[in-house]
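Input.
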Amino acid sequence: MTVSRTICLGFIAVILVGTLLLGLPISTADGSWGSFITSLFTSTSAVCVTGLVVVDTGTYFSFVGQVFIILLIQVGGLGYMTATTFLLLLLGRRFGLREKIAIQQSLDRQGMSGVVQLVKSIIAMTLIIELTGTFAMMPVFIPQFGWPGGIWMSLFHSISAFNNAGFGLLPDNLISYATSIPINLVIPLLIIFGGIGYQVIMELYLWARDRLTGSKECLLFPLNFKIAVSTTLFLLVTATIGLFFIEFTNPGTLGNFNLGEKALVAWFQAVVPRTAGFNSIDYGKMTTAGLFFTILLMFIGANPGGTGGGIKTTTFRILFSTTKAVLQGKDEVLCYQRQIPQDLVLKAVGVVFGSMSTVVLSTILIALTDPQIDFIRVLFESVSAFATVGLSTGITASVSTLGKLVLVATMYVGRVGVLLLMSALLGDPNPTSVHYPEENLLIG
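Output.
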């Protein structure tokens, strides 16, 4: 039982427990036993913080069922090992070397020093941000749903947004709040903070603390922070401008809004492909160009160490820098005057190739099980599932049972990660002292 197998099997265990809980009569609004496929799909979507749904969450599930969903989202967003570590800390259990290695690998952290303290910081940070988002949205939801309903709506959407899940309790998701400034600010900020990574938030907090307290110590941001922040800002700006002009005249999306509202709605749609499946427009009415542009954004995804999916911004940046080095005739991959190690370049190539293979296989299988659905919509659904985004053109509920099972498997692979899953299946690599001779071949 390797560390990678422990993590992968842990996610499966949580999904199965969630399937059982969501299928209970207390979890459904009508008090009947829930469908196995519906429970499995919803549990997988919640644990993998995706947001794809085959039923309306707000009407199909009871309050108890919604509580189960939000707990599954929280466990999935924190990660299996982080959530397990927190529970063991509450029980007062000490951690051995094996547990620390598992936590270090699940958080994609260099070194094992201070991993338990890091978990405590992650839990505290999560609670603070989610409660802040809840209070910020209460003035919007309480006037419409009353105090109990408004508080629950605010808490549910805050947890769902920070964990980049995209689950909503309204039938139209957030379309009715498309021009609401508070919603268009709070939800995107929660998504960005959740997807940018815990390590980046901690470094930003330490930098701000030093500036406010007048500390003479100068915090030097590591390369990971610089790449994560700069790439995120670039994608947000590019996506906002791109969607603004692509959907500008489309009456089904931005066409009926005034200029300021178009910019606000475009901003919201630029943030949510970062793996949070909220939507304030009907993606089923989006143009083919808009859908394909969104597919690219979803495939890139969020930052490593956060609650989002995709190939991650660092992988995208490494491949971009590698391509730039090749075109310039250089044999070193540089980024912010730092050389990227060759093993990271190889890892990035492996992540992209494995991710593309998963999406291609998922798309082909769904196209075979549901040939009546347009290809672009099938591709959109597959990428959304793999990148744990949750955006949909409205075909999720109409996909066949086999197609739903394909999406379940795709969401799982996207959440645990291609490399981690392959490590779990194949086992840890054995070191070897055998080196083979090099030989050139034609490329390009």
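The longest helix spans residues 115-162.
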